[in-house]
Amino acid sequence: MKELTYAQAINEAMCEEMERDANVFMMGEDIAEYCGAFGVSRGMLEKFGKDRIMNTPIAEQSYVGAAIGAAMAGMRPIVELMFSDFMCVCFDELVNEAPKMRFMFGGKVKVPMVMRTAAGAGTGAAAQHSQSLEACLTHFPGLKVVIPSTPYDAKGLLKTAIRDDNPVMFLEQKTLYRTKGMIPEEEYTIPLGVADVKREGSDLSIITYGRMVQMSLQAADKLAEDGIHVEVVDLRSLLPLDRESIIRSVKKTHRALIVHEAVQFGGFGGEVVGQIADSEAFYYLDAPIRRLGALSCPIPFNPNLERETFPTVEKIITQVKSLL
Amino acid sequence: MVEVFMPKAGMDMKEGTLIRWLKNVGDPVQLDEPIMEIETDKITMEAEAPGTGILLAKLVEDGTTVPVLQTIGYIGKEGEKIPDTASVIPDTPTASEATNAPAAPAAPAAPLAATPYAKKLAQEAGIDLADIVPSGTAGEILARDVEAASARKSAKATSLARKVAEVNDVDLTSITGTGFRGKIRKDDVLGSGAAAPAGEPVRIPLTPIRAAIARNMYNSQHSMAQTSDSVEIDVTDLMRLRGSLLSHQERLGTRITINDLLSYAAVKMIQTHPLANASYTDTEILSYPYVNLSMAVATDYGLTSPVVHHADRMSLVELSQALRKIVIKARERKLTMDDQSGATFTITNMGIFPVDNFNPILPSPQSCIIGFGRCVDKPAVYQGEICIRTMMVLSVTYDHRVFDGGEVGHIMQTMKEYIESPELFLVL
Fold first, then answer.
1. A254 and chain B: CB distance < 8 Å anywhere?
2. Contact A286 B117 (CB under 8 A)
């Protein structure tokens, strides 16, 4: 075992896959010499050269489009969007082209592309660089949407994403890049669509993903001091969704709170609520299903105001207690 | 039109409680069809309609106690007018009334809010949501409320224990039962310490049967000239006879008990002492030509006195079987009014307790009750020697208005002779 940061784990996953498969290459803004806005591709230019670690113009539409073309031609591109908010610039490529080609060409082509990007708030990056836009991506059949919460998960899930023959949206959590975790020396992968129960509990299920997994675990620690035993289910992948794990957990605890950093209204939590309500778990509910997401407002630049917009440990604790 | 009245279901019955009507006003009823449940001093029973027609009116509400033969309702033809003097109570609308009056629909009951899991649990446990106390912040029923209701329901308790728990605000689930298979008994509730907080007296509600026993005992003591006598009797030979009869249990088809033998002896005694099987009225003494033998039977719901009618016509085996049957019925709460009425003579047996001499209370209007104490080995003079004999004290309470001390002396003498030489009463 070794201790790596979330960013190092992602770096290691990409390096291993690029060593393993010569078709894997990387494109993005300032990813080569500058190593990307968050330093994720540190050392990769030296290791793999300019042909495989390619700086691009500030033109997401063009290089994501180029990546799709490369993928259709047999390559396995990893494209990095500096901030996930920028997916809006290349939305047509990401959702209207990448997930549809395989179907529209009757399976004659595939798009084995990974779009990596830094998502989420908490860095004072203001309204256009802090959003969590995963919910809109889950609305497009053909895409896969992955959000890792730990270095271990990030590495295992990214390796699987790179090997996947479909476009995978890999939403990294920018406030987690420097968090550390233990990683095995040996190679491993984690399948997409399998949730991970990060903490077992009996009184309530917090269903969450990404950065909110850590917050939920902290809340669970504090709640345990009051004798409240919360189960924390980390979805890890929103599409495909591990519906069975959600249902199993809710049937066990009879209460569900969905926590995500994205705006609550219209967020992915609504889908989880729907999955629960639409399943046998409904009959095991002993409280309404509750969601906790960000307020419906553009994320403020002021750090104090910013903190107020999204879920905190205290808010999670309050919601859990209100359901018991 | 016929009157529905509180039936007089026993010689001593003075009032009855209408537990509930089984019909609504406007319902058609058939002669002899059960229309109400009533409770007497001794039992709960269904009472039949005295006629065929429509139940026109109810004069008393469920739960009302009224004197026997009082009119409590009317059955007649549709539209028939009941007497103006009758004060009718309002009735819940029947289906036919509801359809006749569409202008005033009943307000729908507010649905009971319950979580899906609570509903599921309630359904599985067979508990009506209406019987569950909600604890949710919005007044909704939660799973824990169902579990609490389920625990209360599954707590096995006697009805008296439940009532005691209810009036004393004791949670039955917190009580350990000491009855059969852990059934919670009244004393378990009272002894739990939960029943009487802060030095307050424990409130034990009177069940109808308790109230009836109290009334009957009090009236008996205050309306008759009761006197008691007792004598010690050597039952060694009777015990030996019983042992011998036990060995023939299969052939006899019954397990003869000491109580059977004592009862049989008492019935035989009456042949020569008819005043022990009599009643006093203010003008005369009624001496009955038959023996309806009543036996005091303690049950978990109170004292009962089931009756074996015409015990004087029975062989020992028949009497034994009749007594066993009636005791089982009493313990299973299956006694009918017939089973408890018409007694002319009573026996009571304290033999399972360390009790020798006691003063049984004479049930009115009987003239004599005989009580049997325990059978116990004692030093006794037998055939001029002090030896160990099995002895029992026989206690008699009699109505001194019917006969005097001399007669009771003869009665006791006969009983003593019969019991000490059981072949005597067996051949009579």
1. yes
2. yes
